[in-house]
Structure formats: structure tokens, C-alpha cells
TrEMBL record:
Residues 11-252 form the ABC transporter domain. This is ABC transporter ATP-binding protein. GO terms for molecular function: ATP binding. It comes from Thauera sinica. It comes from the Bacteria. The lineage of its organism: Bacteria, Pseudomonadati, Pseudomonadota, Betaproteobacteria, Rhodocyclales. Keywords: ATP-binding, Nucleotide-binding, Transport. Gene3D superfamilies: P-loop containing nucleotide triphosphate hydrolases.
Length: 258
């Protein structure tokens, strides 16, 4: 990470379009994710945010457009291949083994990244490496006091932290986070906001989020999507001042205060 530069573009999506039959869920969407920055995708229900994140993670192939990661065209890579090159994703629904401990869940995530090279090494070395890696990621995600807890007994907020620890264990340079604050109370949200700010220092983050207070607390760049298209992209002050954005939110459930 010595060569890491804040502001360096890690991931660039160029004019992504995705059709489902006759429905255009994303049209000409171009977003970039830079190291040291949090980019938030905002938009009313059905705007196309999940479709966009699914294309970036490799869960959904674009109908048109390309995606570059650190200067390499990765449009044809699967989700698993993208995870191995450094693009990590968390999902809206928690994706953990509840009966396993926090440490076991994160260790498995660490090992998923490195399969081939371990043929050269002993099982014991692999275990030691993965456990050390897992402990470091658990600490970074703020779950240091829960290492040996069964994951299923963690609070909702802690389970989201665990998911982030699992993504970190894959050595992700880019974190794609789908509603990391969903279902959280205000204390848990505040903790997650602080965690996101810490993680941003060495990585690039793109998140989909509906909690406006949190969005404006963490975002460096916001892209507002409506009907599958980019309505506006810019720093939070520009988005807050945009009449078009305010109109897009009129009559929706999400509160949008200026
Ligand atoms: N697999 C699919 N097949 C058909 N249509 C889909 C599929 N996935 C999404 N869509 C449609 O694409 C449009 C965009 O959906 P998407 O889930 O990307 O929006 P969103 O902004 O993430 O919404 P939400 O905030 O409710 O999660 C919607 O009209 C949705 O019904």
C-alpha cells in the first residue's frame, strides 16, 4: 500500500447500460471510485442503484459499456474473479454463517481469496496466515471484542461490521456496499459512519444508501439516479442545491432536506 495515492481512480465504469427485456434499468451510467473517497449512489426506489452495483461487482453483465479497474478492462470478469483482483462487495442481506464464530467467518473469507498458492505451503502455514489476517480485519472493522462470539448472536449493526470485515479479508481495494446502514438504530448508524470514514483512508468506497443524514455525513461524491439514468453527479453541496434532485425526491419516502 506504500504506492497508494489519495484521489487515484481505482474503478471506472464507462456508459453502462443494462436492459431486462424492454426495460432499461441503467442507461449510460458512468461512475468512478477513487482511493480516499466515498461515492454514494442515491435515488428513489427502482432508480437502478442495485443494478449498477451488480454490474460493478460482476453479479450482472452489462448490456453495453465497460468497466476498468486500475487501468485494466475487467468487464468480462466474474464476481469471483473481481474479488480476487481487489473489488469487494457486501450485500443487502447478511451473508454470514450464524453458527460460526466471527473469527471463523472472516478466516474463511480470507482463504477464499488465496486458493492456488497454498498448494506450495503447508496447511498449518495457511491456517496461521488466515487467522492473523482475519484478526487484523476484525479489529479494523471495530469488532475486536467479539472475535470468539457466535456470529448469529451479534446485533444487527455488528453483523454488518462483520460483513465488512469479511470483505476486508479479501484485500479489497474497492468496497461496494449495498445499504450498509439498513435497519440500524442511530447509535449503530453513527458507528458505521465512523467505520466508513476510517476505511476510506486507504481504499475507494461506493455505497448505495437511503439514510440521507448518513449520506451527507460521509459522501465525497454523490451520483443521483432516476429512471436508470444519472440525474446529477457532484459533491454534496452541489447535490443539495440541485433543483432537479429535489424534484426527483418529491413524493418519495426518502426525506431530502436542504
Ligand atoms: N433481474 C431483474 N429482472 C427484471 N427487472 C429488473 C431486475 N432487476 C431489476 N429490475 C428492474 O430494474 C429497475 C431498477 O431496479 P434496481 O433494483 O436496480 O433499483 P434500485 O434503485 O436499486 O431500487 P431499490 O432502492 O428499491 O433497491 C426496476 O424497475 C426493477 O424492477
Amino acid at each position: 500500500m506504500n504506492e497508494a495515492k489519495t484521489g487515484e481512480i481505482l474503478l471506472q465504469a464507462n456508459k453502462l447500460t443494462r436492459r431486462f427485456g424492454g426495460l432499461v434499468a441503467n442507461q449510460d451510467v458512468s461512475v468512478s471510485i477513487a482511493r480516499g473517497m466515498i461515492h454514494v449512489l442515491l435515488g428513489p426506489n427502482g432508480a437502478g442503484k442495485s443494478t449498477c452495483i451488480n454490474m460493478l461487482s460482476g453479479d450482472l453483465p452489462p448490456s453495453e459499456g465497460t468497466i476498468d479497474f486500475m487501468g485494466r478492462d475487467i468487464t468480462g470478469l466474474s464476481a469471483a474473479q473481481r474479488s480476487r483482483v481487489g473489488i469487494g462487495r457486501s450485500y443487502q442481506r447478511t451473508n454470514i454463517f450464524p453458527q460460526f464464530t466471527v473469527l471463523e467467518n472472516v478466516r474463511l473469507a480470507a482463504q477464499s481469496r488465496k486458493q492456488q498458492p497454498w498448494r506450495l505451503f503447508s496447511k498449518a502455514m495457511e491456517q496461521k496466515w488466515a487467522l492473523e489476517k482475519a484478526r487484523a480485519c476484525i479489529e479494523e472493522a471495530g469488532l475486536g471484542g467479539r472475535v470468539d462470539w457466535a456470529s448469529g448472536v451479534l446485533s444487527h449493526g455488528e453483523q454488518r461490521q462483520l460483513e465488512i470485515a469479511m470483505v476486508l479479508a479479501t484485500d479489497a481495494q474497492v468496497l461496494l456496499l449495498d445499504e450498509p446502514l439498513a435497519g440500524m438504530g442511530s447509535d449503530e448508524s453513527a458507528k458505521m459512519v465512523e467505520l466508513l470514514k476510517r476505511l476510506r483512508t486507504t481504499r475507494g468506497i461506493l455505497l448505495v444508501e437511503h439514510d440521507m443524514d448518513a449520506v451527507f455525513a460521509v459522501a465525497d461524491v454523490i451520483t443521483v439516479m432516476v429512471n436508470g439514468q444519472m440525474l446529477e453527479c457532484g459533491p454534496p453541496a452541489q447535490i443539495k442545491a440541485s433543483v432537479a434532485v429535489q424534484q426527483a425526491y418529491l413524493g418519495t419516502e426518502d426525506s431530502f432536506h436542504v
